[in-house]
């Protein structure tokens, strides 16, 4: 590590953040955080025990009444403060994220800016929480409709967007006056620990936001869900874990928001602008090295243009520099760990066995770090494993199609329903297909849908609820109706 890299890692607190204090785990346990570009240890952070998890949740419960009574303007000021500090420290925070997660620095800076936008957006929402006052249809009685915070929340985030996924939950939770315990992924706890410092600096009161880092998430989180002390779970991660947590939440009927896995179809019709479609495919595929829930997972291209599209995409992907994300020239960093690398390798081998042709990439060079080269495969049959599973790597599988109805049916033939992308210059077709696709979001002639003002989320087994936009704060609010006698 360079001197600056060590300084950025050293500056972060590596303990649990409970009731406004930094504390060691009850048994003083720690676990290592690893740089995926080198496979070497960056530092160790506290490994929470179930008792620590309980203490964090009790702190959130104790803080709820006072935080629930803060004014919307006070909370908006805290959120605006977080927006400012994230921007002030963007370079150090981006470097920290690149070190723990691997993505290139420019993308890390982009993610910090994106995370900051959630704080700015929800500063606006905090002061616009609405209600209603109605006259009963039969006259006489009045109906007062108020919004109240759901109460203490459990927030669980994945490793692929270490700051943004936390910001997308914490900002609306704070705006809605909910207290919380957040648990970042064990691979990438440092960004969230850094954010705890920032939230303290901007005046978020002790106990309002608590952070536990843990190696054994299930042992810490399940008792909290079952305790009945939390009123809501907001989870971003895999469908497999989300399904399990939803079952656990059933016992105490917790409110749940789930942002789960995806298997995004990316459809290029014969009338699309090819350069625009290639740009879109690079954005939808290569952001985060393909480690995004929104990543284009199946690229359907009309058979009349698939050869030309494949040539152009392969040329662009082959030219992307791969390496440690701390080098500003790098556009493709390492995958998160060895298991991720092995999964991508086996999915590519399976596709080739099923008859796919490699246009570029296709095999990793052994060495330190978990690097996989940008890869384009064409003629991928729909029974290849990668057509059915999240690839989570820089691999673009091209699948030919001939008819609109055929591609819509193929795109919908998945248990997932997060996002789809459509490239066409025919307005009627664009709207027809966007309506027919079974996904919560559609990118029309664009390869990125993330936006703080958008209701981000999926249908089918990609999730429940929405994050961002006005819907984002609704997830943290209950509706209370007061019936008023007037006679
Ligand atoms: P994951 O394995 O499901 O883990 C997500 C989080 O859940 C981590 O903090 C993890 O902790 C925790 N966790 C694991 N087992 C748990 C348990 N038994 N009880 C409570 N918490 C538990 O997912 P991931 O590999 O980190 O992230 C990748 C997945 O997230 C992909 O499927 C991706 O599509 C999805 N994702 C979805 C969205 C969206 O908005 N829809 C956004 C980003 C990512 P540990 O790290 O300690 O295991």
Automatic annotation (TrEMBL):
Q: Where is the active site?
A: 259
Q: Which residues form the Aldehyde dehydrogenase domain?
A: 22-482
In its UniProt record, a GO molecular function of this protein is:
succinate-semialdehyde dehydrogenase (NAD+) activity
A Gene Ontology biological process annotation?
gamma-aminobutyric acid catabolic process
The alphabetized UniProt keywords are: Oxidoreductase
Q: Which Pfam families match?
A: Aldedh (PF00171)
TM stretches of this protein = none
PANTHER family attached here?
Answer: SUCCINATE-SEMIALDEHYDE DEHYDROGENASE, MITOCHONDRIAL
Annotated family: Belongs to the aldehyde dehydrogenase family.
**The protein's name:** NAD-dependent succinate-semialdehyde dehydrogenase
Organism field: Mycobacterium decipiens
């Amino acid at each position: 590590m360079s001197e600056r890299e060590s300084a950025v890692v050293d500056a972060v607190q590596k303990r649990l953040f409970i009731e406004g204090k930094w504390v060691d785990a009850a048994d003083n346990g720690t676990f290592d955080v690893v740089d995926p570009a080198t496979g070497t240890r960056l530092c160790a952070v506290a490994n929470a025990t179930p008792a620590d998890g309980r203490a964090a949740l009790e702190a959130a419960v104790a803080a709820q009444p006072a935080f629930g009574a803060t004014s919307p303007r006070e909370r908006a000021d805290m959120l605006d403060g977080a927006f400012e500090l994230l921007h002030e420290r963007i370079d150090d925070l981006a470097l920290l994220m690149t070190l723990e997660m691997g993505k290139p620095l420019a993308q890390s800076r982009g993610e910090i800016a994106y995370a900051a936008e959630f704080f700015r957006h929800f500063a606006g929402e905090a002061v616009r929480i609405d209600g209603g006052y109605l006259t009963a249809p039969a006259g006489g009685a009045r109906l007062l409709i108020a919004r109240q915070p759901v109460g203490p929340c459990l927030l669980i985030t994945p490793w692929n967007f270490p700051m943004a996924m936390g910001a997308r939950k914490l900002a609306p939770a704070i705006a809605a006056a909910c207290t919380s315990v957040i648990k970042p992924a064990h691979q990438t706890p440092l960004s969230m620990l850094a954010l705890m410092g920032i939230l303290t600096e901007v005046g978020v009161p002790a106990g309002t936001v608590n952070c536990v880092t843990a190696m054994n998430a299930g042992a810490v989180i399940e008792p909290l869900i079952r305790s009945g002390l939390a009123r809501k779970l907001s989870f971003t991660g895999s469908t497999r874990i989300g399904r399990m947590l939803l079952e656990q939440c059933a016992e105490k009927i917790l409110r749940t928001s789930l942002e789960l896995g995806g298997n995004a179809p990316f459809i290029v019709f014969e009338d699309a602008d090819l350069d625009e479609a290639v740009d879109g495919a690079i954005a939808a595929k290569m952001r985060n090295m393909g480690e995004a829930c929104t990543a284009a997972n199946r690229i359907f291209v009309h058979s009349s243009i698939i050869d030309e599209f494949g040539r152009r995409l392969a040329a662009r992907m082959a030219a992307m520099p791969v390496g440690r994300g701390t080098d500003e020239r790098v556009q493709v960093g390492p995958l998160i760990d060895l298991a991720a690398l092995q999964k991508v390798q086996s999915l590519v081998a399976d596709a080739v066995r099923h008859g796919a042709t490699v246009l570029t990439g296709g095999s990793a060079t052994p060495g330190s770090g978990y690097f996989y080269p940008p890869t384009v495969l064409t003629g991928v049959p729909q029974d290849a494993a990668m057509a059915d599973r999240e690839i989570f790597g820089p691999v673009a599988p091209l699948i030919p199609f001939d008819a609109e109805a055929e591609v819509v049916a193929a795109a919908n033939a998945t248990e997932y329903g997060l996002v789809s992308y459509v490239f066409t210059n025919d307005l009627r077709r664009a709207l027809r297909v966007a309506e027919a696709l079974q996904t919560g979001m559609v990118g029309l002639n664009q390869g990125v849908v993330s936006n703080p003002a958008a209701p981000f989320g999926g249908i089918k087994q990609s999730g429940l609820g929405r994050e961002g936009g006005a819907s984002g704060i609704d997830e943290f609010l209950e509706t209370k109706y007061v019936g008023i006698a007037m006679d």
